[in-house]
Amino acid sequence: MSVYAHSLPVPETLQTNSRNPTPETLENGLLRTFKSPFELKQIHAQIIKTNTPPSVLQLSHVASICALTSSFPYARTIIHLSGKHETAVWNSCLKDFAQSESPDDAVRLFSRLCEHGICLDAFTFSFVLKACTKLLDGLGGRVIHGFIEKLGFQSNLYLQNSLVHLYVVSGEIDSVRQLFDKMPDRDVVSWNIMIKHLVKMGNVDEAYNLFSMMPERNVRSWTSMIMGFVQCGKPKEAVDLFTKMEEEKLCPNEVTVVAVLSACADLGALDLGKKIHEFANRSGFKRNIRVCNTLLDMYIKCGCLVAAYSVFEEMEQKTIVSWSAMIQGLAINGKGEEALILFSKMIHLQIKPNGVTFIGLLYACSHMGLVHKGRQYFASMSRDYGIVPQIEHYGCMVDLLSRAGLLKEAHEFIKSMHIKPNGVVWGALLGGCRVHKNVELAEEAIKHLLELDPLNDGYYVVLSNIYAEAKRWEDAARVRKLMREKGVKKTPGSSSISLDGVVHEFVAGDDSHPQTEVIQQTWEKLLEEMRLRGYVPNTSVVLLDIEESEKVRFLYRHSEKLAVVFGLINTANGTPIRVMKNLRVCEDCHAALKLISEIVDRKIVVRDRNRFHCFENGVCSCKDFW
DNA sequence: GTAGGGTTAG
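^ inputs. structure came back:
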């Protein structure tokens, strides 16, 4: 079906889009293929001379030209002469524009088609909607929607789905619901779009409800749902769903692999990650850059730098994402120097860094105490690469200065910021105040933090620690009281370790594990040896208002200690122990794990909230700087 | 010739 759009006035929204061509559009857009302004005439001459009509492709070149020049009627003449179906030619052109770097050219061409009363069909709309989707142009979408209704295409399922999707990506929530609810027919695509919508709204439970109710599910449905869980911070659910998908004998594709690998990265689930890696190799997914980048990230987040590096090395093509991930990976694994060297190598290869690359670099500097170098990178990002520092970069800089003990300077830096500092920025200062014992500035930081992020328990805990270390017990008690009043509870420390694919979780103070007794006995034995090597429990990390002996008892049941001891008991001598922790490792556990690695002669890798600690022969890869 | 997932930071 096709309809002439003669009678339709071109709405203003679309007219504003139909700006005149600029050198940039000509350079960036599809019109790079536009060789000379004489092309039109050449094609015209060809038709007349040889009597061979040009192909649709050639003609869509003509159309490309006309979209931006005044020779629209002339182009129509040529298309008519060619004997090709005019709508097909324009559609081909719209499709190219929609796929190009400047999809707004498609919108502009569409306006011209309307102005000149060209016959439109469903394909015309689908292409222009694709362009609007790419542009996140919900308003333009509404206008096209109006056209679709007026011209009688409203029952076309392709167009319905395209419209719903456009409303999803452009955030027109009300329109999404309205349109979806009154759709006469829905297919698996419609449902998949709704999953994306609900996930985007953060409503992953409802998305899963919908997923369960769907009349039909394909690989994309499963993948969208798995990815939805990952995006909503539920990697465990993502992995569980993936297992169900395998049970249904559905074959994962590249996107599924990316989703599951992301979940593995979040969980630190190395075993499953390795399996997916093998599957990806078998399936020939290695050529897919996103698969490789996610794989690389998975190994990094699981603390397997060597495996990550070999994925990186083997990649046929690397993007800035690969480089940035590798730089950050080295940095969080205590290989800051290597991170900086890799960056130099990248620059040498003339690869342009982006904002994320600099986050990794600044992080590396911060964790090595390289203040000068960090300042240089910060200055260089805008000066040499035109990257405007974002709030994350400011956060890194405050962290760098604060860790190095330059607290006043860090504070000045915050005050001079051009954007409003957020919780991360003030939190970095607070962290530095703890290490360098500056109560006064800590109080300044907390003042802002209580405004910005009053429900974040971490800040209260740090402040209370700072007071406790300064022996200001009343103030420490006051902070705890404040927490109670605000209903803020300290997140319990929790560590997990995976053995033979089973994840064992330990929460601080937890003695519910079936092996609790053996864990206690082993710990006692280790403790004797640790004491001989100079270990003294550091009870300042315990915030509770309890007797000293109670504090020690508490300290000995910190989750990372429990998980590590459990690992020692249940694995063969020499096997590395890998533990994931939800919070940062405490000072006491850090000291204890260094000694334990020496006593039992094992590598112990702990991933905390921020980075990796690799304990080996009595030292930690973080060089006690974290 | 038309519609629906994906990578580094957080």
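Confidence is low (pLDDT under 50) at residues 15-36 of chain A. The two ends of chain A are 66 Å apart (CA to CA).
thumbs up if we can close this ticket
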